[in-house]
Amino acid sequence: MKAWQFKVLRRLADGEFHSGEALARALGMSRASIWLAVRELGAAGLEVYKVRGRGYRLAQPLSLLDREAVLRQLGDDAAHFSIEVLDSANSTNTHAMQRAQQDVPGALVIAAEWQEAGRGRMGRTWHAGIGGALTFSLVWRFTQGMGFLSGLSLAVGVALMRVLRALGIAEAGLKWPNDVVWRGGKLAGILIEMQGDMLGPSTAVIGIGVNVRLSDTVRGRIDQAAADLETACNQPLDRNQLLALLLRELRQVLEVFAREGLAPFRDEWQRYHAHQDKIVTLILPDARQERGWARGVAEDGALLIETETGIRRYHSGEISLRPITPVMRNG
Ligand code: ATP
């Protein structure tokens, strides 16, 4: 998505009809460029209606990510963050990893309306549609070394869950090590990357992708069950407000984590654990599978699995957990 395509999106965001001719005139573009931009918006997950004689219209009005709106929502807490909202980024984590080298006042937040190449763990892809997702990265500095951060993605999961509970989403849960699920579908993902020294200090780039409203186009690209917030809480959500809520909660959790690690969050994580005391399959790096009872997490974030030979600890690395009971699809 290019800057000129975003200009068209901003005009269409009100959900009203705009003729191709009026858009072309207002933006100083050709009608063919407007048509191309609309086609790209469709490919990016937006539903755009075209009606002969009236022009183009979004299926529903769209409130775009807006730095000022996030700052307003944060109120006094805004002073703790340095927020940048981009139309488009390669991936907010990649961008934030580069920016993390620079000194900025407060914790740096990079949010993007569109990611060219959103990422999951182990080179996997994170899909997000324009206007229907919240994708951002938060850069957080720790005096400790990278080893101290092993349970960080679990603490971040707790922060996400607190916000979802506050929104009234009772059925959301956590899947080790980095997902938030709702009725068996993935609602949000966490991707943490680190810079620094084993002995400290270190920097974590905490990437978060939340499905706010999944369009059919985006849903069709995801090769596993997915869920979205608006379905889960049965109401439209303002993404700027959501970002502010998440940042406020993340700050509280990260400040405690920086002092005490995962320990203060461990019980809470287990209460949210979608597979606690259920039988699961683990896919190991060499593709072997192991089965056992999920017994929660250790204080360093390791997953505890009870097998016939006793409790085993698994560190996040390249291990994937899969439920073996049938999951309920959302909808
Ligand atoms: P693991 O259990 O190992 O974390 P995972 O499949 O959850 O496995 P992640 O790296 O956490 O892998 O997330 C990337 C995966 O999530 C993609 O391969 C895809 O299957 C799925 N995915 C991508 N985009 C979305 C989305 N917007 N909503 C839900 N799921 C998505």
Entry keywords:
10 helices, globular, single chain, 5-stranded antiparallel sheet, 7-stranded mixed sheet, alpha+beta, disordered C terminus, 331 residues, binds adenosine-5'-triphosphate
The end-to-end distance, rounded to whole angstroms, is 30 Å
Major beta-sheet overview:
7 strands, mixed
In total, how many beta strands? 14
Helix content: 25-40%
Low-confidence stretches: 327-331
Strand content: 25-35%
Mean pLDDT: 93
Report Rg: 21 Å
Largest sheet, order of strands side by side? 3-4-5-9-8-7-6
Structural class: alpha+beta
Bound molecules: adenosine-5'-triphosphate
Number of helices: 10
Order of helices and strands: HHHEEHEHEEHEEEEHHHHEEEEE
| Outline type | globular
Write a concise synopsis of the structure shown.
By secondary structure, the chain is an alpha+beta fold. It has helices spanning 3-12, 20-27, 31-43, 67-74, 92-99, 152-166, 216-221, 229-233, 239-260, 263-272, and strands at residues 48-51, 55-58, 81-89, 107-115, 133-142, 172-175, 179-182, 185-196, 202-211, 279-283, 289-297, 303-307, 310-314, 320-323.
Structure description:
The structure is a single chain. The protein is α+β, with helices and mostly antiparallel strands and 331 residues long. The protein has ten helices and 14 strands. The protein has a seven-stranded mixed beta sheet with strand order 3-4-5-9-8-7-6, with helices on both faces. α2 crosses α3 and α4 packs across α9. The longest helix has 22 residues. It is globular. Bound molecules: adenosine-5'-triphosphate (ATP). The site of adenosine-5'-triphosphate has 18 residues, from β8 and β14.
